[in-house]
Amino acid sequence: MDKIKVAISSFFVALFLTIFKGTVGFLTGSLGIISEAIHSAMDLFAAGITVFSVKIASKPPDETHNFGHGKIENISALVEAFLLFLTCGWVVWEAVERLGGKEVHVTVNFWSFFVVLFAIFIDINRAKILKKASIEHRSQALEADALHFSSDILTSGVVLLGLFFTLLKIPIADIFAALIVSLVVLLMSIRLAIQSINHLLDGAPFSKMRILSIVNKIPEVKNVHDIRIRSSGSTIFVDMNIHLDPNITVEDAHRISHIVEEEIKKEVLNCRVHIHQEPENSH
User: Sheet harboring 235-244: ordered strands across?
Assistant: First the structure.
């Protein structure tokens, strides 16, 4: 599955949903649907960023970016989290104004329910496709996009409930539905931001024990230390020092290092391994 094609298709889906929700939202006056339209608009902008970042991240390492361009995906995810945060701020502001007495007539009709149900159907399919692609390519940008569509499913469900109660002459339900949408999106954006910052600060994507358990199964390796793990976009970088029998040849040392590298790559997808060899009696 080509991750650039997946990102581009998500962009056009977000564009369609933004126009559809926005039109129905402003025609009916529903803050819940309007908040969903703004959410989709942020998804649209975020999807555009994702297309750009995924394309840049796919470029190979060069003279000025020796470890590749993968970090652009982490930056993209952080920007998307910030945009979601801004979305929440606007919806909460509008909800507080309406609770404070701002009069807005909300019309609930066939199109109100149809646009939300249709959006849920689309979001479920897009979230599955994006999640699968993000796992396949280890792409945080696609994972962020999948998170956007997943959050849309939950928030659309809340808006649907709000519309139902509004139909029962409880108009305040629409406002509370919008507030719940904002809370859910806020929590997801905070989680995404923390994860993105951790990757940008070279936080280890998994425990060193995972690498240690792989290397310890190779009998020629006497000891292993100074394991360091970092990620850049979808690529995992692993550095380590291994101790070998001091009487073996350089050729044998190279062969053993190659075995270690291949065993790690079997367990860790899209991984680059750098190994420093030392004689066992050097310490």
Answer: 223-232, 235-244, 271-279
Q: Which of 62-66, 141-145, 234-238 is predicted least confidently?
A: 141-145
Q: Using CA atoms, how far apart are residues 277 and 220, in angstroms rounded to an integer?
A: 12
Domain of 23?
3-200
Residue 34 sits in the same domain as residue 68: yes
Q: Characterise 270 by phi-psi region: left (phi > 0), alpha (psi -120 to 50), beta (else).
A: left
CB-neighbour burial class of residue 168 (10 A; exposed 0-12, middle 13-18, buried 19+): exposed
Q: Which of 200, 219, 234 is the last residue of a domain?
A: 200
- Is the model's pLDDT at 130 over the cut of 70? yes
On whether both 82 and 174 belong to a single domain, the answer is: yes
Let me know whether 54 and 162 are in one domain.
Answer: yes
Whether the predicted model's global pTM rises above the 0.85 cut: no
pLDDT in tens, 49-84: 767 776 777 777 777 877 777 777 778 778 877 877
